[in-house]
Amino acid sequence: MNQPIPCPTKIEINEVAPRDGLQIEARFVPTEEKIRWIDALSTTGLRRIEATSFTSPKAIPNLRDAADVVTGIQRRGGMDITVLVPNVKGTERALACQVDEINLVMSASNSHGLANLRMTPEQSLEQFAAILEVTQGSGVFINASLSTTFGCPFEGEVPEVRVLELVEKLVALGIQGVTLCDTTGMANPAQVKRLCKAALERWPETPFTLHFHNTRGMGLANALAAWEAGISRFDASLGGLGGCPFAPGASGNVCTEDLVHMFEAMGVDTGVDLDALLEVAATLPDLIGHDVPGQVVKAGKSTRRYAMPAQRTT
Amino acid sequence: MNQPIPCPTKIEINEVAPRDGLQIEARFVPTEEKIRWIDALSTTGLRRIEATSFTSPKAIPNLRDAADVVTGIQRRGGMDITVLVPNVKGTERALACQVDEINLVMSASNSHGLANLRMTPEQSLEQFAAILEVTQGSGVFINASLSTTFGCPFEGEVPEVRVLELVEKLVALGIQGVTLCDTTGMANPAQVKRLCKAALERWPETPFTLHFHNTRGMGLANALAAWEAGISRFDASLGGLGGCPFAPGASGNVCTEDLVHMFEAMGVDTGVDLDALLEVAATLPDLIGHDVPGQVVKAGKSTRRYAMPAQRTT
Question: Which residue ranges does the record assign to the Pyruvate carboxyltransferase domain (chains A, B) (predicted)?
């Protein structure tokens, strides 16, 4: 057994709200508003923004302006733009827009893969191989997101050995980074710690990102457990935007500003200017037309001070 | 340095919603409804319920029926009834109702003590001494809740050395159990782990309970950190009922069913029948007239399975 990996002193956030958040919104956010929003986000010190998805406009109408968004936003040094692509065609469109990173997606469970992507994991891997031929020599970082890593809403538990087998295949294929996704908020901290330790021990050179949902309130607890296992990269969504079509009323993705707030309070460097991020988060309800689950934007940071109430005289 | 305390395999929940939750509600819940609710809660395997507060009816009108509630509920074996008392008079009223436990409350910070109780910590300790004279020989367990342990909304940080000094005084006074309260949701997991470890190392025989709020989304992460430090007793509030008058719109106490769900998913025995608890939690909106922050009641347990969606043909 190796020495335990120390808790990282720095973490990196990949902001996924423009893609994972907007895709399920009822309202199409106009392209100029998306661009203004992403430009505001990109001044806050986030390491990476998943700006959109190069999907069929029929499949995800909210992101039908993918190319306009990516070519319209300001590209600031130190922050990468990543985009989700579902296939070779999407990859070609993304490469034409000079993205820094491409995020592929597959499911760890057969039934979720079939329901969500109409592909088994093995079919997804074949497609990834075709995509990697297209990206070869582009210098673009290729990440793969593995959905339902901590459980499938149709099948239940996805055996850890199956998850690790799929990671092995992704790494062998030439995928550079792997995101372990708790797609519908089924993970618990003990499970997270176990799988993260196993992955980091086996592939110490592979950047692993953890993607949590707060569907059952465990988003930050799971992020804490992952960090304790040595994970230093997290997906998060401003305001906790996003969600799970199976759990109406439940929380969505883990909330970026709440995650940054927790880690910064713990003395972990996120690289993010939390005050600037909270300012952008406060504009979300106007942008999307409804309240969001984020807590810190409502309560203020834990360093917030209040005036003493006036003494009651009776 | 001692060996690290292992993570407990069993934890105990003290359900505080009937007291900490109801006290700030806009509506007075009729006595019979309170009794029916607590009776339902007491069948779920909870170890302890904080049923009410023997306070002045003027100070907390919602709990003006304290004696009727305590004498009206069914007392089941294996579950203790605890009540909050603010002074000697309340203690006498509580003892007359044959409670199992009395919970005293004081603040770790001067300004919160003055604002909330009109007492400095030292004045509270004097009053506790007077209360302990009254309870002597009663066989009733005496617990003290220490507010603002992890920060004060007026003063900010409360030095750990000050918290430990107050715990020392409580233990020396003859207080049997101590609850460390994150009254306004300022704690972070690193701080929680540090203070819990220090307290457990110094007073290994004292039962420490941790009381968290989810004001900034960290409730379950803080509970996880406390458990990792060796804590096995938690306050929690059904539905996440309760809150902080300074953060309107923010979440309240850590939610009982979400806490039980997390620990049970991790394989930690809470003694609680989660399905039964969720049934009671589902009745909360009717009882109090509004939605509550609890997540698992909306999303279902992580073991919940869904039918595969029908295959789209286009």
Answer: 11-278
Q: How far is A181 from chain B (nearest CA, A)?
A: 15
With a CB-CB cutoff of 8 Å, which residues 192-221 of chain B face chain A? Answer: 214-221
* Cα–Cα distance measured from residue A64 to residue B64, given in angstroms and rounded to the nearest whole number: 59
Rounded to the nearest integer, the mean pLDDT of chain A is 95
Q: Which of A191, A257, A295 to mutate to test the interface with B (most CBs of B within 10 A)?
A: A295
- Taking domain A12-299, whether its CATH number is 1.20.140.10 is answered by no
Among candidate residues B280, B279, B290, B282, the one with its CA nearest the CA of residue B252: B290
Cα–Cα distance measured from residue B210 to residue B129, given in angstroms and rounded to the nearest whole number: 23
> Which band of pLDDT confidence, cut at 50, 70 and 90, is reported for residue A312?
very low
CA gap B17, A153 in Å, rounded: 31
- Closest A-chain CA to B221: A221
Give the tokens for residue A39: 């430009």
Spell out the residues 6+ positions from residue B228 whose beta carbon is closer than 8 angstroms to its own. Answer: B7, B193
- Residue A280: what residue type? V
B188-211: b (≥16 Cβ within 10 Å) or e: bbbbbbebbbbbbeebeeeebbbb
Give the integer Cα–Cα distance in Å for A88 and A17.
24
With H, G, I as helix, E, B as strand and everything else as coil, classify residue B102: strand
Measured distance CA(A53)–CA(A61) in Å, rounded = 10
- Say which residue the tokens 């902080």 belong to: B244
Give pLDDT tens digits for B155-190: 999 999 999 999 999 999 999 999 999 999 999 999
Q: For residue A8, give Cα distances in angstroms to A127, A230, B39, B308.
A: 34, 6, 47, 39
Q: Does A269 touch chain B (CB under 8 A)?
A: no
What integer pLDDT is reported at residue A248 of this predicted model? 66
Sort out which chain B residues have CB atoms less than 8 A from A242's CB and list them. none
Which residue of B306, B312, B313 to mutate against A (max A Cβ within 10 Å)? Answer: B306
Does the pLDDT value for residue B313 go beyond 50? no
Shortest alpha-carbon distance between residue A121 and chain B (Å): 17
- Token pair 């984020």 in the structure block, residue: A294
- Region A291-304: mean pLDDT is 94
